[in-house]
Design a protein that fits this description.
binds fe (ii) ion, 6-stranded mixed beta sheet, alpha/beta, 6 helices, Purple Acid Phosphatase, chain A, domain 2
Protein backbone atom coordinates (compact mmCIF):
# COMPACT_ATOMS: atom_id res chain seq x y z
CA UNK A 1 0.00 0.00 0.00
CA UNK A 2 2.77 2.43 1.02
CA UNK A 3 4.65 1.53 -2.19
CA UNK A 4 1.57 2.38 -4.28
CA UNK A 5 1.29 5.84 -2.65
CA UNK A 6 5.01 6.32 -3.27
CA UNK A 7 4.44 5.76 -6.99
CA UNK A 8 1.57 8.21 -7.05
CA UNK A 9 3.62 11.19 -5.75
CA UNK A 10 5.62 11.88 -8.97
CA UNK A 11 2.44 11.52 -11.04
CA UNK A 12 0.63 14.08 -8.87
CA UNK A 13 3.65 16.41 -9.06
CA UNK A 14 3.79 16.19 -12.85
CA UNK A 15 0.05 16.87 -13.11
CA UNK A 16 0.44 19.89 -10.83
CA UNK A 17 3.30 21.29 -12.93
CA UNK A 18 1.37 20.83 -16.17
CA UNK A 19 -1.73 22.42 -14.69
CA UNK A 20 0.24 25.39 -13.33
CA UNK A 21 1.85 25.97 -16.73
CA UNK A 22 -1.61 25.93 -18.26
CA UNK A 23 -2.78 28.60 -15.81
CA UNK A 24 0.14 30.85 -16.64
CA UNK A 25 0.52 30.40 -20.36
CA UNK A 26 -2.97 29.62 -21.56
CA UNK A 27 -4.24 33.14 -21.32
CA UNK A 28 -6.63 34.80 -20.39
CA UNK A 29 -10.23 34.87 -21.16
CA UNK A 30 -12.30 33.35 -18.47
CA UNK A 31 -15.84 34.21 -17.64
CA UNK A 32 -15.12 34.17 -13.97
CA UNK A 33 -18.39 35.47 -12.73
CA UNK A 34 -21.63 36.54 -14.22
CA UNK A 35 -22.57 38.87 -11.46
CA UNK A 36 -25.78 40.85 -11.69
CA UNK A 37 -26.14 43.91 -9.51
CA UNK A 38 -29.49 45.01 -10.90
CA UNK A 39 -28.44 48.62 -11.15
CA UNK A 40 -30.87 49.07 -14.02
CA UNK A 41 -28.25 50.53 -16.34
CA UNK A 42 -28.73 47.94 -19.06
CA UNK A 43 -24.97 47.74 -19.58
CA UNK A 44 -22.68 44.80 -19.97
CA UNK A 45 -19.18 45.62 -18.70
CA UNK A 46 -16.03 43.58 -19.14
CA UNK A 47 -13.49 44.04 -16.36
CA UNK A 48 -9.77 43.74 -16.95
CA UNK A 49 -7.11 44.43 -14.35
CA UNK A 50 -3.37 43.81 -14.09
CA UNK A 51 -2.78 43.07 -17.75
CA UNK A 52 0.88 44.10 -17.33
CA UNK A 53 1.95 45.05 -20.83
CA UNK A 54 0.39 42.28 -22.83
CA UNK A 55 -1.80 42.41 -25.89
CA UNK A 56 -4.59 40.08 -26.94
CA UNK A 57 -4.49 37.20 -29.39
CA UNK A 58 -7.03 36.87 -32.20
CA UNK A 59 -8.77 34.18 -30.19
CA UNK A 60 -9.02 36.44 -27.13
CA UNK A 61 -10.46 39.24 -29.25
CA UNK A 62 -12.98 36.95 -30.85
CA UNK A 63 -14.16 35.85 -27.41
CA UNK A 64 -14.27 39.41 -26.14
CA UNK A 65 -16.21 40.65 -29.19
CA UNK A 66 -18.66 37.77 -28.93
CA UNK A 67 -19.70 39.04 -25.49
CA UNK A 68 -20.81 42.32 -27.16
CA UNK A 69 -19.79 44.48 -24.19
CA UNK A 70 -21.00 48.07 -23.86
CA UNK A 71 -17.79 49.10 -22.12
CA UNK A 72 -14.55 47.91 -20.57
CA UNK A 73 -13.44 48.81 -17.06
CA UNK A 74 -9.66 48.66 -16.82
CA UNK A 75 -8.80 48.98 -13.13
CA UNK A 76 -5.06 49.60 -13.21
CA UNK A 77 -1.70 47.99 -13.95
CA UNK A 78 -1.99 47.97 -17.69
CA UNK A 79 1.77 48.62 -17.75
CA UNK A 80 4.85 47.29 -15.99
CA UNK A 81 6.48 50.17 -14.13
CA UNK A 82 10.08 49.31 -15.04
CA UNK A 83 9.42 48.22 -18.62
CA UNK A 84 9.94 51.29 -20.79
CA UNK A 85 8.51 49.69 -23.94
CA UNK A 86 4.74 50.02 -23.71
CA UNK A 87 3.86 48.85 -27.24
CA UNK A 88 1.90 45.80 -26.15
CA UNK A 89 -0.13 47.78 -23.64
CA UNK A 90 -0.93 50.37 -26.29
CA UNK A 91 -1.88 47.65 -28.73
CA UNK A 92 -4.14 46.07 -26.09
CA UNK A 93 -5.85 49.38 -25.45
CA UNK A 94 -6.41 49.90 -29.18
CA UNK A 95 -7.74 46.36 -29.53
CA UNK A 96 -10.26 46.92 -26.72
CA UNK A 97 -11.29 50.38 -27.92
CA UNK A 98 -12.10 48.87 -31.33
CA UNK A 99 -14.77 46.80 -29.53
CA UNK A 100 -16.15 49.28 -26.96
CA UNK A 101 -15.12 52.35 -24.91
CA UNK A 102 -12.55 51.75 -22.18
CA UNK A 103 -12.67 53.45 -18.78
CA UNK A 104 -9.12 53.25 -17.45
CA UNK A 105 -8.03 54.02 -13.89
CA UNK A 106 -4.42 53.87 -12.75
CA UNK A 107 -2.58 51.26 -10.70
CA UNK A 108 0.70 51.42 -8.85
CA UNK A 109 2.57 50.47 -12.03
CA UNK A 110 1.21 53.51 -13.90
CA UNK A 111 2.01 55.79 -10.95
CA UNK A 112 5.63 54.63 -11.00
CA UNK A 113 5.93 54.43 -14.78
CA UNK A 114 5.00 58.08 -15.21
CA UNK A 115 7.75 59.01 -12.77
CA UNK A 116 10.41 56.74 -14.32
CA UNK A 117 9.45 57.41 -17.97
CA UNK A 118 7.63 60.71 -18.08
CA UNK A 119 8.06 61.36 -21.82
CA UNK A 120 6.99 57.84 -22.75
CA UNK A 121 3.96 58.14 -20.48
CA UNK A 122 2.91 61.46 -22.05
CA UNK A 123 3.31 59.95 -25.52
CA UNK A 124 1.38 56.85 -24.45
CA UNK A 125 -1.54 58.93 -23.21
CA UNK A 126 -1.57 60.98 -26.43
CA UNK A 127 -1.60 57.81 -28.54
CA UNK A 128 -4.66 56.27 -26.89
CA UNK A 129 -7.87 56.18 -28.95
CA UNK A 130 -10.51 58.84 -28.35
CA UNK A 131 -12.86 56.37 -26.69
CA UNK A 132 -10.32 55.51 -23.99
CA UNK A 133 -11.26 57.61 -20.97
CA UNK A 134 -8.59 58.03 -18.33
CA UNK A 135 -9.89 58.36 -14.80
CA UNK A 136 -6.92 59.80 -12.95
CA UNK A 137 -8.50 60.93 -9.69
CA UNK A 138 -11.51 62.06 -11.67
CA UNK A 139 -15.04 61.06 -12.58
CA UNK A 140 -17.36 61.30 -15.55
CA UNK A 141 -20.76 60.17 -16.79
CA UNK A 142 -21.34 56.59 -17.79
CA UNK A 143 -24.47 56.92 -19.85
CA UNK A 144 -27.27 58.98 -18.37
CA UNK A 145 -27.86 57.04 -15.20
CA UNK A 146 -24.38 56.45 -13.80
CA UNK A 147 -21.17 58.21 -12.84
CA UNK A 148 -17.84 56.39 -12.99
CA UNK A 149 -14.95 57.30 -10.69
CA UNK A 150 -11.26 56.37 -10.89
CA UNK A 151 -9.04 56.81 -7.84
CA UNK A 152 -5.29 56.81 -8.43
CA UNK A 153 -4.03 56.76 -4.83
CA UNK A 154 -0.38 57.70 -4.23
CA UNK A 155 2.79 55.67 -4.59
CA UNK A 156 3.20 55.79 -0.78
CA UNK A 157 -0.10 53.93 -0.44
CA UNK A 158 1.50 50.88 -1.99
CA UNK A 159 4.55 50.68 0.27
CA UNK A 160 4.47 47.31 1.88
CA UNK A 161 4.11 47.04 5.61
CA UNK A 162 3.01 50.61 6.00
CA UNK A 163 -0.32 51.69 7.28
CA UNK A 164 -1.42 54.74 5.40
CA UNK A 165 -4.21 56.44 7.22
CA UNK A 166 -6.41 57.71 4.43
CA UNK A 167 -8.38 60.83 5.08
CA UNK A 168 -11.09 62.61 3.15
CA UNK A 169 -8.54 65.18 1.96
CA UNK A 170 -6.36 62.58 0.26
CA UNK A 171 -7.97 62.88 -3.10
CA UNK A 172 -10.05 65.31 -5.07
CA UNK A 173 -11.86 62.60 -6.95
CA UNK A 174 -14.81 62.46 -4.59
CA UNK A 175 -15.69 66.14 -4.89
CA UNK A 176 -18.75 67.32 -6.85
CA UNK A 177 -20.52 63.97 -6.80
CA UNK A 178 -23.70 64.23 -8.87
CA UNK A 179 -26.89 63.24 -7.10
CA UNK A 180 -29.37 60.61 -8.16
CA UNK A 181 -26.94 58.57 -10.25
CA UNK A 182 -25.54 55.10 -9.71
CA UNK A 183 -21.87 55.23 -8.73
CA UNK A 184 -19.12 52.94 -9.99
CA UNK A 185 -15.62 53.19 -8.56
CA UNK A 186 -12.47 51.81 -10.20
CA UNK A 187 -9.95 51.50 -7.37
CA UNK A 188 -6.88 49.39 -8.09
CA UNK A 189 -5.92 48.49 -4.52
CA UNK A 190 -8.73 46.61 -2.72
CA UNK A 191 -7.16 47.09 0.71
CA UNK A 192 -8.56 50.58 1.14
CA UNK A 193 -12.18 49.47 0.99
CA UNK A 194 -12.99 51.07 4.34
CA UNK A 195 -11.84 54.38 2.95
CA UNK A 196 -13.76 53.93 -0.28
CA UNK A 197 -16.91 53.14 1.69
CA UNK A 198 -16.37 56.21 3.85
CA UNK A 199 -16.03 58.70 1.03
CA UNK A 200 -18.33 57.31 -1.64
CA UNK A 201 -21.49 55.26 -1.38
CA UNK A 202 -20.57 53.28 -4.48
CA UNK A 203 -22.91 50.73 -6.03
CA UNK A 204 -19.97 48.84 -7.49
CA UNK A 205 -16.25 48.92 -6.67
CA UNK A 206 -13.76 47.23 -9.01
CA UNK A 207 -10.24 46.33 -7.84
CA UNK A 208 -7.36 44.03 -8.72
CA UNK A 209 -3.70 44.38 -7.68
CA UNK A 210 -3.30 41.24 -5.56
CA UNK A 211 -3.41 38.78 -8.48
CA UNK A 212 -5.82 36.59 -6.57
CA UNK A 213 -3.10 35.81 -4.04
CA UNK A 214 -0.81 34.19 -6.67
CA UNK A 215 -1.05 30.73 -5.10
CA UNK A 216 -4.46 29.51 -4.04
CA UNK A 217 -5.33 26.40 -2.08
CA UNK A 218 -8.69 24.94 -3.05
CA UNK A 219 -11.39 25.71 -0.42
CA UNK A 220 -8.97 27.92 1.54
CA UNK A 221 -8.02 30.79 -0.75
CA UNK A 222 -5.04 32.96 -1.68
CA UNK A 223 -1.77 33.56 0.10
CA UNK A 224 -1.61 37.29 0.63
CA UNK A 225 -1.08 38.63 4.08
CA UNK A 226 -2.53 41.85 5.36
CA UNK A 227 -0.40 44.94 5.17
CA UNK A 228 -2.83 47.29 6.82
CA UNK A 229 -4.51 45.29 9.52
CA UNK A 230 -7.57 44.75 7.35
CA UNK A 231 -8.85 41.44 6.16
CA UNK A 232 -7.76 41.08 2.58
CA UNK A 233 -10.17 41.07 -0.26
CA UNK A 234 -8.16 39.01 -2.71
CA UNK A 235 -10.46 37.53 -5.30
CA UNK A 236 -14.23 37.45 -5.65
CA UNK A 237 -17.23 39.54 -4.66
CA UNK A 238 -17.24 41.17 -1.23
CA UNK A 239 -20.04 42.93 0.61
CA UNK A 240 -22.24 42.30 -2.41
CA UNK A 241 -20.64 45.09 -4.44
CA UNK A 242 -16.82 44.96 -4.35
CA UNK A 243 -15.46 42.88 -7.20
CA UNK A 244 -11.78 42.00 -6.79
CA UNK A 245 -10.33 40.46 -9.92
CA UNK A 246 -7.51 38.00 -9.88
CA UNK A 247 -6.11 39.88 -12.87
CA UNK A 248 -5.33 39.13 -16.48
CA UNK A 249 -1.55 38.96 -16.43
CA UNK A 250 1.54 38.88 -14.32
CA UNK A 251 5.02 40.36 -14.16
CA UNK A 252 8.41 39.49 -12.68
CA UNK A 253 7.73 35.90 -11.67
CA UNK A 254 4.89 34.25 -13.59
CA UNK A 255 3.40 32.46 -10.62
CA UNK A 256 -0.21 31.34 -10.56
CA UNK A 257 -1.30 28.16 -8.87
CA UNK A 258 -5.00 27.23 -8.93
CA UNK A 259 -5.49 30.85 -9.88
CA UNK A 260 -6.03 31.40 -13.58
CA UNK A 261 -5.78 34.76 -15.27
CA UNK A 262 -9.27 36.13 -15.50
CA UNK A 263 -11.48 38.62 -17.24
CA UNK A 264 -14.78 39.32 -15.53
CA UNK A 265 -18.12 40.11 -17.09
CA UNK A 266 -20.95 41.83 -15.26
CA UNK A 267 -24.41 43.10 -16.12
CA UNK A 268 -25.23 46.45 -14.60
FE1 LIG B 1 -0.94 46.60 -8.74
Amino acid sequence: MIMKIYYLIPIILILLIVYTAYEIFEFRFRKYVHFKLDLGLGLKAVIITDLHNKSFTKRDLKLLSSEKPDCFFMAGDLLISKEEDNKKALEAMRQLCAIAPVYFSLGNHELKYRVYFKEQWDEFIKSLPDNCFILDDSHMSLGEKAEIFGISLKIENYKKGRLYDMSEEDTEVFKDIPEGKKKILLAHDPDFYEYYDRVLDADLIVSGHLHGGFVRIPFIGGFVFSRYGVKHRVKGIYAGKHLVSSGAGEHLMPLRVFNRCEIDIIDL
